Amino acid sequence: MDIFEKCGQYTEAREAMAHGIYPYFLPLAENEGTEVVYQGKRLIMCGSNNYLGLTTHPKVREAAIEAIKRFGTSCTGSRFLNGTLELHEQLEHELAEWTGKEAALTFSTGMQTNMGVISALVGRGDVVVLDKDDHASIVDGARLGFGKIERFQHNDLEHLERVLQSLPDAAGRLIVVDGVFSMGGDLARLDQIAPLAKRYGARLMVDDAHGMGVMGGGRGTAAEFGLTNEVDLIMSTFSKAFASLGGFIAGDEDVIHYIQHFARALIFSASMPPSNAAAALAALRVLREDPDLPARVIRHGHKMCAGLRGLGFNVGEACTPIVPVIIGDNDRTFLTWKLLMDNGVFVNPVINPAVPAGCQLLRTSYMASHTDAQLDQVLNVFEKVGKQVGLI
Fold first, then answer.
1. Percent of the chain beyond pLDDT 90?
2. Residue 149 confidence (pLDDT)
3. Which of 186, 263, 269, 383 lies deepest, with the highest CB count within 10 Å?
4. In sequence order, what DSSP letters do the residues of 92-105 get, joined into one string?
């Protein structure tokens, strides 16, 4: 068999394109934060991870521009060799301070952070324990390591304990969970996971890509629970609340030092460009100067969760700025997405295998920079479309 044969046999996406219901890789003509332009039409953006609305903040933009003027467009090498700037180290210092950890280390993307950290730490004879709803980057990082992978049902603490009890006594153990789950908008039960980790000799890593800058006054999900000292490693990205691109891991200095020298995703990748590092640093400083930003986006999330639930939509266990509208089948999910777009609201359709069959949904997410008028308009459109499709 020709290895390319399967490429010609894959027709689902082209069929959706032909019917005008293909919802992915949409080229935006303008992206101004809370509003975007697609095919000449202005839409309210409810599908972005720009939680604090900082991608258009003047201080963040200016920092990126100045970094290009000073350092150029690329570091042209890995952090390990010629690609470390004082700017990277300053960002790491302030991130460690912000997260309440001894040290931090930045990577070029969030995906690389999880792949590099987990594969560096979990070796032969070790076990990594994952929530079944963990992000794909966590799963891929676990697969890259040479240890064994165990999974527990989403936020099922009894199942997690059974998994931990079954592990060999000699095995090193790392539990990795999302702080805020990216599809459901619910929180990991860190108040119960952390004691279990301690009881069974496991280390705990939290991927806070969707919680950093939002939960715990902006310091993350561990801070939300008052468990910063009980969470061993805090990971996050810059492509959400920090309005840039990249990722970081924070923890004890000796652990970060080890990762720095054994994470292949760090050693063999070019370092984060100066503009991205400067933008992330500026966003962190804006967040520090404006402590109401996290509270504002949480308020917006609660408003939309209550509003959508009040209209009769199924929003699951959402309690963050991520609010899923659970529909349950592909056809109605795509139809609802298309009608929302036609009525000026941009959301993201999510189908199997990204979510289990029967849990297909529209992922909506909100920003601190959304206005009440915009949010009210989104609710009005959802009510109109929901009745049209028969969801409410």
1. 95
2. 98
3. 263
4. HHHHHHHHT-SEEE
The C-alpha atoms of residue 58 and residue 66 are separated, in whole angstroms, by 12
Q: Which runs of consecutive H residues, i.e. helices, occur in the chain?
A: 5-9, 12-18, 58-71, 86-99, 110-121, 136-144, 157-166, 190-199, 221-224, 253-262, 264-267, 274-289, 292-311, 330-342, 372-389
The residue-averaged pLDDT of 201-205 equals 98
Query: How large is the C-alpha radius of gyration of the chain?
Result: 21
pLDDT, residue 156, reads: 97
Distances (CA, A) of 212 to 110, 140, 191, 215: 13, 22, 17, 6
* pLDDT exceeds cutoff 90 at 302: yes
| Phi, then psi, of 200 in degrees rounded to 5 | -105, 20
pLDDT at residue 159, rounded to an integer: 98
Structure confidence by residue, pLDDT tens digits, 35-87? 999 999 999 999 999 999 999 999 999 999 999 999 999 999 999 999 999 99
Strand partners, 43: 36
Distance of alpha carbon 44 from alpha carbon 55, whole angstroms: 16
- Spell out the domain ranges in the chain: 5-55+291-389, 57-289
State the Cα–Cα distance between residues 318 and 185, nearest whole angstrom: 5
Q: Tell me if 293 sits within 8 A of 363, measured CB to CB.
A: no
Q: Does domain 57-289 fall into CATH 3.40.50.1970?
A: no
**pTM of the predicted model, to two decimals?**
0.96
Phi first, then psi, for residue 96 (nearest 5°) are -60, -45
> What's the Cα-to-Cα distance from 379 to each of 47, 306, 343, 368, rounded to whole Å?
14, 10, 12, 17
Please count the CA atoms within 13 angstroms of the CA of 88 that sit on its side-chain side.
22
Mean pLDDT, residues 6-10 taken together: 95
What pLDDT does 85 receive? 97
**Domain topology for 5-55+291-389:** Aspartate Aminotransferase, domain 1 (3.90.1150)
- How many CA atoms within 13 Å lie on the side-chain side of 283? 31
On the CB side of 155, CA atoms within 13 Å amount to: 13
175 bridge partner residues? 129, 204
Q: What distance in Å separates the CA atoms of residue 313 and residue 382, rounded to the nearest whole number? A: 9
pLDDT digits 0-9 by tens, 79-130? 999 999 999 999 999 999 999 999 999 999 999 999 999 999 999 999 999 9
pLDDT at 32: 80
